[in-house]
Specification:
This protein has seven helices and eleven strands. By secondary structure, it is α+β, with helices and mostly antiparallel strands. The chain folds into two domains: about 80 residues, no CATH class; about 130 residues, Beta-Lactamase (2-Layer Sandwich), CATH 3.30.450.
Length: about 250
């Protein structure tokens, strides 16, 4: 069996020894956009370990040599039994979405479900699939929370929320499971997004604050989509049940 804890310890070691902001793994087909803030080293099964820094680095060559030495020292732990890498698909998906956001200058990159409120991944969020915000017909069961919710003014929706709502309102989304396909672009003065469906029921959404380079965004999405699709399909299923402490306000039939 693969030593998952050993892998996590090595990731922390790499981050500490190299003074890195983040350490993650992507298939070799995905290349970081800003080479001067990244260093990498090949791993088994067509993958690479990428190390990213928050600022420019002057001793790039020295850090590359240090990374090579560290990775080679722990190759047995980094390589799984089948030659693959111990990397949860949720973590790899988050890294791929973050890479795409940086490459296209998007404020966020999301993967949503056309048939449920599940948010499968977000560049600005965590690495675990989660349910989106409760629908408008869901009210808290707790009286205090219900009273607070009724008195507080509704918060302004984020750019990501605006994009998700706009995508879900598109008629094409309801037909995806019947073989439909969504490829939409919205451009406004202070907001925009690109939405592309894949694997029947999923939609990749690139969210932008203001105007954006559409050609650059389309090129980045095309390059990253095959990797993102494989990672999403590798995620464990999640049931879109109402969150704990909420109840759906169902309208009775007359």
């Amino acid at each position: 069996m693969t030593d998952v804890r050993g892998f996590e310890r090595i990731v922390e070691l790499l981050r500490r020894e190299l003074g890195a902001e983040n350490v993650f793994v992507l298939p070799e087909a995905v290349t970081p956009a800003l080479a001067h803030t990244w260093i990498d080293h090949p791993l088994p099964n067509g993958r690479k370990v990428y190390v990213t820094f928050g600022t420019d680095i002057e001793d790039r060559d020295a850090r590359v040599r240090r990374l090579e030495m560290l990775v080679d020292s722990f190759r047995e732990v980094l390589g799984a039994v089948d030659g693959g890498l111990v990397e949860p698909p949720g973590r790899s998906l988050h890294a791929a979405l973050s890479w795409l956001a940086e490459r296209t200058t998007a404020s966020d990159v999301l993967v949503i479900d056309a048939q449920s409120p599940v948010l499968w991944g977000a560049a600005a969020g965590g690495t675990v699939p989660s349910l989106g915000p409760p629908p408008k017909n869901v009210v808290p069961l707790d009286p205090t929370e219900r009273s607070r919710a009724s008195q507080a003014p509704p918060p302004a929706p984020s750019l990501a929320d605006r994009a998700i709502e706009a995508v879900r309102a598109m008629p094409t989304v309801a037909r995806l499971h019947k073989g439909g396909h969504l490829h939409a672009t919205v451009r406004e003065e202070d907001f925009g997004f690109i939405a592309r469906s894949f694997a029947t029921i999923y939609v990749l959404v690139l969210v932008f604050e203001g105007r954006f380079d559409e050609l650059r965004a389309e090129r980045g999405a095309t390059q990253a989509l095959p990797v993102i699709e494989r990672l999403v399909l590798a995620l464990p299923p999640i049931e879109p049940d109402p969150p704990v402490g909420t109840a759906a306000a169902v309208r009775r039939r007359r």
